[in-house]
Batch of 2 targets.
Target 1
Amino acid sequence: MNMPGLGAWFDYTVNGIVIGNIYAMLAVGLALIYGVANLVNFAHGSVYVVGAYVGWAAITYLGTPLPVTILCVVVVCGLVGVGIERLGLRPLHGSSRIAPLLATIGIALVLDQVVQLIFSPDPRAVPMQVPEWRIPIGGGTIGPLDLLIGGIGLASAAVLYGFLRFTKLGWAVRATAQDSDAAQQMGVDINKVNMAVFAIASALSGISGLLVGMYYNQINPAMSFEATLKGIVALIIGGLGNVPGAIGGSLILGLTESYGIALFGTSYRNLFAFVLLIAMLLWRPNGLFSGRSSLPPEPMTGTFIARSRPFRIPPWAVAGLIVAAALLPLLNNPYVLQIGVNSLLYGMLALSLTLVAGTVGQISLGHAALLAIGGYTSGLLAMDAGWPVAVTIPIAGIVTAGLGTLLVFPAFRLTGHYVSIATLGIGEIVSLVILNWSGLTHGAIGLGGIPPLEVFGYDLGSVEGTYWLCLVILVLLALLQLRLLSSHLGRSWRAIRDDSVAARSYGVSGNRYKALAFGFGGFGAGISGAITAHSYSYINHETFNATLSVLALTMVILGGLGNVMGAVLGATLLIALPEAFRGLAEYRILIYGLVLLLLIRFRPQGLMGTV
Amino acid sequence: MSDPGEALLRLDNINSFYGPVQVHFDLSLSVQAGQIVCLLGGNASGKSTTMKTILGLQRPRSGTVFFEGQPLTGLTTPQIIRRGIGSVPEARRLFGQMTVRENLLMGAYTRSDKPAIAQDEERVLTLFPRLRERLKQRAGTMSGGEQQMLAMARALMGRPKLICMDEPTMGLSPLFVDRVLELIQAINKEGVTIFMVEQNASLALGIAHYGYVLQTGHIALEGPADELLRDPRIRDAYLGGAAAA
């Protein structure tokens, strides 16, 4: 750690405030949306990217001056916001609270992919529209861009304040946020309020994206996820739904990041943000500016279990399917077999998630981190300690079970939205620790040359070998999970999901059972990650990213939450189907997003039914 | 227009459910214009569901609500409010973070005639002088009785023909209960019809013209308020029987 000089501190402070301003324009919108709709909008960062690209296109192709550019961004993003409300929120009125959240994740996937298809995934430079002078102050400097961003931030806050305070629609927004039933009884049309709020929030988010593009002089479609996360972190610091709090939280986040970079370097920046997130969730879940330290009860907690009768497959048919799967290598088609391997590996992940998210009702958005822990454990033990693969893989399962449970343990007292946000944050932290703990994990270089699969001298590195190994493990895990679900343990899990208060009053200690679920789930996911690492032979901190977590969740919902056969089916379908239409490879994420959206809207119980 | 014999509000054979549980069994009642009508009943008798059904917050499985002779079927709550129905919800449900004045103006949300709204604000503040002193105060910081007054004032600001009140005296000190009842009568004298749901039968019947008694989703008893007050069944069930006599 080296201490920068005073002038540099001034620069870091200015930088922190500028970044804070940009975050504020994201977080204020998230707070407004949470206020009126009780929803954390995961598509918010995607709108921000749309804003950045609309601005870029306007400047590049039309040569618009800055005010016109901003106007273009406001109009397009406002309309996108209206669309999100119509598609992701309104049709889901009356379903469980997590449903619209999942819908916004689906919308985010779709929007990101559309931007990528239109503008290509390559980064673009946003042409400078401001002069290049800088004013020296107290050893540091301030440039016109800093002032512009600060000015736009202040102006937006002023306009928003005026709107909420002095206009009728603004009153309706505040009234709806405080008590939407009562607002309706005053004649407020909630749909109109929601639509207005989504339009405003999205316009602000779009401006934020444009400003970021100008500040860093670079935009790319992949920056949406980080923007969503940063907005959510700022939102949580300020307190969900608290608009002034969101501004305060954003400035705190911006300064924390900037000083963090000053002291520890750039790669720690996001780690600071997410550690701050988890700390807030644990100690001040209502935000820094609220007196209460306990969370308000959520009327309908995080479960997304649509009532349904699960589709039963008779045991002989299951046995038949297993035999058929075992005979797949006889086709002698390595391409098909590789898809089979991928399906089986994802199947293990889906089994794990369907237990945690379906049976116990903890909608985890960070499940890919378990794969990362498993992959790194096995890879490092085999490479750096030289242990045989047959030993490292089961150890990876055990380590993942323990470490995964330990990491989420502090989040066990959270429910609903908070679980999803916390698991997402924990997942990011795992990836960032892998990136920064170079001494153990080889850091950004990743693990190269991971030894291939072999068990007691038998080489399983071939596709057939990997396939059979995965099939055996998946069948064993599935049978074990079925056995557990029909036991006393399974009943306790479902009791916690359906009514945690009632379960507790019957003496079922929520935390211990949640720990067992995450432990068992972690074991399967860790093994899946380990096998993946050995068959890829190279992994890095981004191999198991958040998109993969969302994909796993989509598989699980497709199969039917909590449904063991469903999880395997969901994984197989989502892995194999896009391969069947190989021409659609670049639309893959788009398809996943649409599948997620359609499922939540039309078949929340999935194909096989929830259990 | 409705024909002269038609009640202002009429519920016709309402059957409603809460999840799998039936709350109303062929519930029918009517409210004549200009009157104070009360619906009495104990816990879980279906009183609040009746209110929600009228306001469109809950849809009945069968049956129709008529207002001024027109069915309200399929209308959303805001649309029903715009027809001329005001609501004083159970537990008041004020906008606690907003000022008293902002709460009053929220009551006039469906209107756009600014001069008339200003007039009504003045009229309402004359009726509730307590609120005039507190116009800039946050509604959530007032006492329960003051909040109840604000809730009634807020409903009046929409210039409704009918105000539905859900347990207006609940949780108030005896002093405020009397004051609230007086105010309900004063509002009624200005020509606003009142339909109120109450647990406290003697208080409600004391100011009402007509009453209904709801028991497990059926109308068990109905009649002019003074007759109900003398009815031995009411006395036994709601007024403490012989002890009160």
Target 2
Amino acid sequence: MNPGEHVTEIVIFTVLFLVVSGMGFVAARWRRPQDLASLNEWGLGGRNFGSWITWFLVGGDLYTAYTFVAVPALLFGAGAMGFFAVPYTVIVYPLVFLVLIRLWSVSHVHSLVTPADFVRVRFGSPTLALLVAITGIVATMPYIALQLIGIEAVLKTMGIGGSGLLSDLPLIIAFVILAAYTYQSGLRAPALIAFVKDILIYLVILVAVIYIPARLGGWEVIFGRAQEKFAATPAQGDGILLNANNQLQYFTLALGSALALFLYPHSITGVLASKNRNVIKRNMSALPAYSLLLGLIALLGYMAIAAGVKPIGTDNNTVVPVLFDQMFPDWFAGIAFAAVGIGALVPAAIMSIAAANLFTRNIYREYINPQATDAQEAGVSKLTSLVVKVGAVLFILLIDPQFSIDLQLIGGVIILQTLPSVAIGLFTRWFHKVGLIAGWVAGMGGGLVLLYNISNPAIKHAHFGGSAFPLEKLGFDTKMTIYAGFLALLLNLIVAVAATLIARAAKVPDGPDGTSPDHFTADEGDPRVKDLELESST
Amino acid sequence: MPGNDRDRSPWYWLLLVPIAVPLMTFLFNAAEPTLLGFPLFYWLQLAFIILGVATTTLVYRMTR
């Protein structure tokens, strides 16, 4: 594509992008903290966000640019399977409701910032906390990288970017700006930008789902053309309905992704920044409004089929931007592209903050400088957030974007292995720390072996070709597939139970539990929450 | 503060409904009946969002 045809789009995209970046820098003064030099302020925005800010922040956090680009791309390529994103985002809220309010309480009583902090207090094991922290950082990196893919897809459609080092320059500039204002303002930046992002996204999607079907001849035509396309392809797994072999995958992928989502450090950051338990509960009933949006966004993939969209090169991620480019007048396409681009900035900022907090609290303070002051912690986190972003940019420059959704699925398999320590640990202290460490090792090892053995003929990869593991490789006589993360988690749990029983029988000393049952239900205004704030972060 | 059993309200069990129902593929893996041109697979799963909102709202009101 030629950038000359896209001048209007490029101008509108650039202007909106710069306005939002300006907001990111100003955000440091928003809700005026006395001092940004502590993790509570820089990394959690003062832990004082009410219902509205939390709604925008968590929504901006969970529904990312990748969602807008990769989920429709999945429907475009494979059909019904891609719709797993809808049940996944329906079941995640009741799960968060049940689990993360307990994490909120215990974190406020003990001034915890990260999930690994919790594991440290609960199981008295720095080793287990380190494993949880490393898992979080490793799983978050490709997720940040995915956000860049959203921006990249838009840039490609406008005829800038593509291949070669110089053409990556716009992407690098966008990320340098993002890195600079995250460094300056911390969590306040994405919280403020999330307002603009959401207004733009809602506007674009509402227009898209009314205007595009009307131009294409209605929903019946859209679904009909999608069905014709899948019927004509030689592949067995696609279609606008599930088949006998991928229903188990659909079920386990939706459940596994939901369990993984709230274990990601960035979702926990958003939840911990809220003011009290009721803010979280109210949000869990209001956040599904985004899921409706997501369902409609997913169907953009079928609209692209019906409109005869051809992806740029082999990059299916470009189908939505190309659809917008074909369907909308230039000025509105520019707004739509800006929505996707800005949609990438919010989660990328929160994710890099969360990963940086993990490094600071669970590696720097635990192993390098145990006497770190609040200001030192904030300083280290700010620097780490820059390093994490550089890592994410390298991911994009060095790895084929075709992998975007698979990368995220692999991250999901990895982060799921912290479920026994973090999520189950919120309810019971039954597991022995040795059991949890053994389970983590087994789940992680098993998960990577499973992923290694998944091939994807469509993109000519013999290994790491996705997350759908064929059960016949385990000796079952079937063509069914299952989500690899689900199997790995089962293995993790079985090993954790067995190793716990063995460790108890062998009288291996367990770590001390720093919590008591009432810490898991404490709320704002509770004397315990106040008292422990005075003790600061010890 | 009202004791340790704040998280023991029976209302919380209701949250298992919007977790379990959207995962039952046999409920919605069909094209008919269609609604406004949407096959059952798509409109029913979107309708589960309403089920999720209703349940979480109810449990929030009963446990706050």
